[in-house]
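Async update (no meeting this week)

Hi team, since we skipped the sync, here's where things stand on the single-chain job. The sequence we agreed to prioritize is pasted below, unchanged from the tracker. I ran it this morning and attached the output directly underneath so nobody has to dig for it. Comments welcome in thread, and please keep replies under the output.
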Amino acid sequence: MKLHKIHLILLASIIIALLYFFFSPYRIVSHTYDLKLGEIAEKDINAPFDFYVFKNKESLEVEQKAAVSKVQPIYKISENLKFNAQKNLDFVFQHFILNNDLEIQQINRKLRQNGYKLSITNIGLLINDSRRIRIYNFLSEKITKIFGVGIYPDNYRYQEIKISKSNRIINYGINRLYSLEEARNKLVNWHTIQDEKQLIRELADIILIENIIVDQEMTDIEKGKAKEKVSLTLGKIQKNERIIGKNQKVTSIELLKLQSLLKTQKNHHPTRDNIQLALSSSGLFLLSMLIMIFFDYILILFFPSNFSSIPRMIIILSSIILSIILTIFVNNILTIPSLLIPFSLSVLLIALVFNPHIGILFNFITLIFVSIFLNWSFTNPMILCITTFGGILAIKHMKKKQEFYPITIYLLISFLAVNTAVSLIKFESITIYFWHLLWGIISSITSVVGLILLTPFVERKLNLATKQILLELLDFDSELLKKMATVAPGTYHHSLIVGNLAESAAEAIGANHLLARVGSYYHDIGKLENPQLFIENNPDATILHDKMMATESALLIRNHISDGLALARKHNLPKSVIEIIQQHHGTGQIKYFYNKAIETNLDFDEDQFYYAGPKALTKESSVVMIADIVESTTKSLDDFSEKRIKKVLDDTIHNLINEGQLDESPLTLKELEKIKTYMLPILMGVYRKRLEYPEN
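Output:
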């Protein structure tokens, strides 16, 4: 990379860093509002940024308590109570096992001492060992089944109950569980011996207990969730939305908004001191340097060499700075929504000055810088970035000059699609959707208007061969082409055919085919100064040259290069077109008059019979050189057979290589073969022999 290009990148990075230092999103001035309830506002107060309005503490607590009160208790089936029921059953029956030698009254007294009430009749039934064992086994089995289903509290009043199982809350219909009475009846009904049913009921009263109890931990969790669901805010205030108007009385809601603004402001882009801002700006300086150096190397590696020239680097760096300045103007100075930034302006300018492929790359670079100056906010810049692809697509398919209407239409359609998609993703209201749509329309139109104003200035001042300029130069109503068609019709016709040949070949090898065609159209404009001296314009040109010395004729022929350069500069033709005019003969020899000088024994300097050059330095100028020689040679043939024209192509390229005219050219042998392949059918089409139709 050349030193002066590094200086440009360094300068641009310094400018960007300084802009960031003075307009950093962290350089926020805190707002203070000392209005009180019932006071009259002395001025309009608008929101400096988006924020939420927080509820006051009292109303929030009331809402949270109301939400908590609606939470139904969560229950669980207690394994401990089931164990206790079995323990009670065992304890009752132990009275009979341990006291089997006592009378019924004595057993009854011991049971009552321990809190168990059984009738004398039922105590008598349990004295029988086999009966007691059978009833014990029956009860053990059945209470396990009943407690497994669950017995809910008698005071439960809902039709459904929430029960926690394995950290999951399951809704049960109350009819799927047992009340205490239903459990007793179920136990009695399961027993088939009628004389023992009363015994089973009395034992059920002792054993059965409600084993579905409140799960306090899960209930507290659910209450906490209900509390959290209560919104802390009343709604959102948008940036620039009116909080209170001038001369308006401060009510409780306006006061709440102002208090919420002050609360949010503490955490919203906290203000940094100058030392911190300087460090932050130095980081952006380094990042800018890296991005620009990488961009320049990408141009060098993957695009034509002239795309990384100093004038075009100036355009790139200026466009980045322009995007940043527009962002600062919209966001920091006007403080209006960032969707109004004319994001597409600089990107489309690059796409026109360079080509759409570079425009796509620059689109992402612009996205980075704009987002940084919006405090790394990517949403709106991303929407504008995607929208800009529509404008780049319009440029890619541009066929005529001044086609700015399609660019506008493509931008608007792209924004409509992107805005619709993003609005659906973010659940935005229809009102916000249409506001965003309006802002996007303004941004797109502003970008195109700026493009219309800037493009001619950039193209003319830097003399760049942009697509727009090249398309204009192809217009047959342009001054030079109209003059050539009138004053030098042979040269004009020759240039058109050379243009067809050069464009086809350039496109085949990946060169700038549009530049090749334009260069072909204008490569011989120097012949406008003396058109009669060239055989294609004047069949008697040889007579004129016969009256001159060979050196004089060679000078006049050679001067069509210098005359062409003078005309090109006078009419502000792009530099790359001028280079084709200058290089299309390279340093070749003017052989006809050189041989004439030898035949006439003229004393001469050999340099008088060579073009000044330089040799062809680009693919486009090389292709025009080949096309120019091939067309001139082919039209002088008597035999237009494919074999003969192929020989012209082969001989032309062979001679140019032997003479060293392609030594500086970037063309490869493979590309030269491809050039011959693509030029052949065009030459065959132009010069094929016409059939002679018989006369009637």
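Quick observations from my side:
Confidence is low (pLDDT under 50) at residues 690-696.
The CA atoms of residues 423 and 433 lie 6 Å apart.
Reply here if anything looks off.
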